[in-house]
Predict the structure.
Amino acid sequence: MDMNNGELIVDYSDLLDVQEMLHRGTDLKGCIETIFIINGQEPKYVQNVKISSEPNEHQRPFVEMVLKEINEYINNKRILAGGG
């Protein structure tokens, strides 16, 4: 994960981390919280989320699921912080 002017860029190493955590029994929300911690990113500064490169047809469902969960995580953090 990298942040550039409020845009959070998720790369495939982050997705591999999520996939590994899921295989070990972590729920998706826990995976997302963990990758934010690992990468030192603060959700309240994120204005937009994107993937570093377009996924292929096989990867697309997983990538979309993770990006959706990331957006929900960010929105929930904003609401809890009073900035929603």
User: Anything to note?
Assistant: Helices lie at 12-23, 28-39, 60-81.
